[in-house]
Design brief:
Length: 234
């Protein structure tokens, strides 16, 4: 079993099994998406809307909390690459930027900055149809710019880790951006309470949560069996 090691004062070692982390992240992602969709089906039969606590599309829900936590964990895991001595010196600024981006996305996920900016931008440019969620365009451009900037770091990774990092990134953009664009025309006309919109939202959020889980696990695999040397002091 592959594991991470963190060493505290007194030379006590804490082992974190990567396989267990993978099961928790992937299982929670699938469970939250199923709970969200099921709650919608139950509430629609009762003539209501949804159970906000389980609604992955709601700002205040377990799904939003979990995805925010995933972004924060991703930021910490990326930053830990600097501690584990697995990043070449000339690439460290690229790793630092990626950690900052993950942290910024955790903030955005918790307060929905992109959706607020999207609404304001939509009013300015009068976007509609597949561009109803106009914020996706600058977001995808920013994601592509980040990917280009990170190419030297990506090339330095073992091929198995690099492929999983790239795969998780493409999955996140496809679900977070592609499905959002696809939902635009129907959401503009019929709102976000239709079963089509709810289904697309559940798939979108599931894809995002799984992408983050795969990203986190891939970078943890990069550090397996290394001692991070984290010491707790008063």
């Amino acid at each position: 079993m592959h594991s991470l090691h963190t060493e505290s004062v007194g030379s006590q070692t804490v082992r974190l099994p990567i396989s267990g982390i993978r099961r928790i992240l992937v299982g929670s992602s699938i469970g939250l998406a199923i709970a969200s969709y099921t709650s919608h089906l139950i509430q629609r039969r009762r003539g209501g809307g949804s159970i906000a606590l389980f609604d992955v599309g709601d700002e205040v829900s377990l799904g939003t909390w979990f995805e925010t936590a995933e972004f924060m964990i991703a930021a910490i895991v990326v930053a830990s690459l600097l501690l584990a001595d697995v990043t070449e010196a000339h690439l460290k600024n690229r790793v630092r930027l990626l950690a900052v981006v993950m942290f910024a996305l955790s903030v955005d996920e918790s307060v929905s900055i992109h959706e607020r900016m999207g609404s304001a931008l939509r009013d300015v440019v009068s976007s509609s149809g597949y561009l109803y969620y106009i914020w996706v365009i600058p977001a995808v451009v920013a994601a592509l710019a980040l990917a280009v900037w990170e190419i030297p770091w990506l090339r330095s990774l073992p091929s198995s880790v690099r492929n999983r990092v790239l795969g998780s990134g493409m999955l996140f953009v496809a679900c977070g951006g592609g499905l959002e664009l696809l939902a635009g025309p129907d959401d503009e006309v019929n709102g976000t309470a239709t079963m089509r919109s709810l289904t697309l939202t559940a798939i979108e959020e599931l894809g995002e949560m799984l992408a983050l889980a795969f990203f986190i696990v891939a970078l943890l695999e990069l550090q397996k069996d290394r001692r991070l040397g984290v010491r707790l002091v008063s």
